Amino acid sequence: MDSTTEFNPYQAPVSELLSERFAAEDIQHYKAYVGKKSGYYIKHWFKLRQGINADSGFNFAALFYGPLWFLYRKMYLHFAAICLVLVAEGVVEHYVFKMSPFSLDTILSVSNVFGLCLSFSCAYYANRWYFHHVTRKIRAARSNEFESDSVTRKLKRTGGIDFLSPLSFVIALTLVIYAAITLQFVS
User: Fold this and answer.
1) Cα 116 to chain center, whole Å?
2) 113 in a domain, yes or no?
3) Is pLDDT of 3 > 70?
4) 41 part of a folded domain
5) DSSP characters for 48-85?
6) What is the extent of the structural domain holding 127?
7) Alpha-carbon distance 72 to 80, whole Å?
8) DSSP label at residue 22
9) Is position 6 within any domain?
10) For the purposes of burial, counting CB atoms within 10 Å of the CB of 134, is it exposed (0-12), middle (13-18) or buried (19 or more)?
11) Residue 91 lies inside a defined structural domain of this protein
12) What is the pTM of this model?
């Protein structure tokens, strides 16, 4: 915190990592991990690291592609968590509303509202979650490598995007749905 900023006792604490300024080496490592779209993310992450604004930007790709965006950005744990939430919502919807007197329209409305809320939440927090994900990856690379060039090479190799995972997931999901429909008609 610099001398021109007033102390706010009600403000959430800002970690050292977020309050320090981007060093040239940090920017190089973030660019190495993120890849071609690093300028977009660094612009939003700069705000996070400075503690200037809690808003890290709204990610329209995460809104429209949902969990697939997390696969695309190699955030596999986030993808799994979102899928678990969707499966849990489906199970609750199936069993709770199956025994309830609500109409199918009501059930679908609740499901749609839940899906929209989840989609908008993911889009709102996607840049923040990606920032923390990339920061963890950079810390791990720095703890294992001693020279900045070797850290950068490792980040370029392990970071970036993964087009194959979301594509594979969509193909697998399509095949599972096709098999389920086919089995339903056969039996």
Assistant:
1) 16
2) yes
3) no
4) yes
5) HHHTS-S-----HHHHHHTHHHHHHTT-HHHHHHHHHH
6) 16-186
7) 13
8) P
9) no
10) buried
11) yes
12) 0.79
d(CA 140, CA 138): 5
Residues 129/78, Cβ–Cβ less than 8 Å? yes
The amino acid at residue 131 is F
Q: What is the pLDDT of residue 54?
A: 62
Give the chain's end-to-end CA distance (angstroms, integer). 68
pLDDT, one tens digit per residue, over 85-113 is 999 988 888 787 777 777 777 777 888 89
Number of domains in the chain: 1
- List CB contacts of 2: < 8 A, sequence separation 6 or more: none
Check residue 19 and give its pLDDT: 40
Residue 2: pLDDT band with limits 50, 70, 90: very low
Tokens 């678990």 locate to: 84
* pLDDT given at position 14: 46
